[in-house]
Amino acid sequence: MSRKFGLAIAQMGPVHRTDTRMQVVKRLLEMLREAKSRGAEFVVLPELALTTFFPHHWMEDQSEVDRFFERSMPNPDVQPLFDEAKQLGLGFYLGYAELTERGEHYNTSILIDREGKIVGRYRKVHLPGHGDHKPDAPFQLLEKRYFLVGDEGFKVWSTVGTKIGMCICNDRRWPETFRVMGLQSAEVVVLGYNTPSHNIHWNESPHLRMFHHQLLLQAHAHENALWVGAAAKCGFEDGCHMFGGSCIVAPTGEIVAQASTEGDEVITYNCDLSLGDNFRKHVFDFARHRRPEHYRLIVERVGAGDPIP
Ligand code: CDT
What we know:
This protein is of the alpha/beta class. The protein has one domain (about 5-285): Carbon-nitrogen hydrolase (Nitrilase/N-carbamoyl-D-aminoacid amidohydrolase, 4-Layer Sandwich), CATH 3.60.110.10. It has helices at about 20-35, 60-65, 80-90, 145, 175-180, 205-225, 275-280, 285-290, 295-300, and strands spanning about 5-10, 40-45, 90-100, 105-110, 120-125, 155-160, 160-170, 190-195, 225-230, 235, 240, 245-250, 255-260, 265-270. Helix 1 (about 20-35) packs parallel to helix 3.
């Protein structure tokens, strides 16, 4: 029997350095309303949705860095988002920079139920890029400088009528991210991302960047028999072009909805949560077919080493 879940992705065009949180939230409110009018029950917003993707720039003054972080959530700037979503009966995923009471900095996402309550938090585990200054690069990727590695792992929550897990951007490139959530019976995994169209390390065609994004999401969705919803922040932002390609991927591995612009754009799909059942019962029945005794190296080694004898 089919089980329907109205999933929406609210892709964002660029945020400008001079934009206030209130201006950004106004854009998000419009997209929440559009998502609702198209039958959505849950909306995915991007990574670091409230600000520019500031790790593209080197900053030495910590107070300048901290201006991109939220000290509490919800806070007065973001409260209208929580109020409107509750009013519309929508759950949502929001990515933002979190500064804790203990002064720790994380790249964080939260899961909000249809009553406007925060039910889950995820702190990004795979921080891409570098921590050192690369003044000659056209832009930088300083997540290792500005954020700590997330300390709460990959979790799955029973909420908004499904079992839903979260990750953030670079996490989508790692099979472990999705398998850990697949092993917690996730039916949906949602994420936000900011991905530059250009590679600062070697010459790579922009089309390959999009190809890898899609290839990985499609593979992880299928091999874990779950739905994936991915929301970009994209376009030219603060001197860096980031690709769009926000999408919804079915457990079959098919992209069923995809954004066509690099601006604010809502895409929706009425997902059948039971679509993964056949895969879970047969080809990807983990309990019957997985052989963890042969996967020990995955947790025993971090980097690649010599072949085992
Ligand atoms: N935000 C983020 O994690 N971006 C990285 C850029 C890496 S460049 C391939 C990403 O994996 O999309």
